[in-house]
User: Fold this.
Amino acid sequence: MQITILLADNQDVTRLGMQTLLQRVVGDRHPVLQVLDRQSLLGALLRSETPVVIIDTESLDMSDPKELLALFQQQPDARWLLFQNDIDQRQLSVFAAMPSVSMLLKDNNADEVCTALRCVLDGERYVCHQISNWLLSRRKESDAALLTHTETEILRLIAMGKSVKEIAALRFSSTHTIVTHKKNIFRKISVNNVYEATRYALRNGLADAEYYI
Assistant:
């Protein structure tokens, strides 16, 4: 059974980096086809008997969970590794229970990426530690908020009293990026200040109440 790896990402740096890690993991055992857009992906899927698809859905403008679910269901023999900057709650709610869909973030280190690749190529599912921890610790979801994984983590840090500068340092991001995330978080959860955001985080189990005692 010939596995074909479809590397579906139109970001050059990410694609080249993943190509290097694939070479480390599989060498020349499986052909790797680079896919840069939606139509090329659909065509490659039709030509591949047992595809393993490493995909950044955002870069291919395929972030709609319903569209992705339909695609996954049309390809019962394919295995999918979502590899992107973030995976929002809409996608998680659809894909968390799908054994053919593995999930990885682009800020995972090289060792974890290689582990994920080995699992997926061996027919096993892999979910990176950040998403696993987030899924395990989540007690409630706000249907209105739809926070991404990154936004949830930043909200947790805000609730712990971290400043924008401290959060930026912890996440190896710019202060501008964190300020943008903070504005989006406040808009999504309908709060106006850090105090209200902290109360929201506590009510929804995103921060440990014992921290404030």
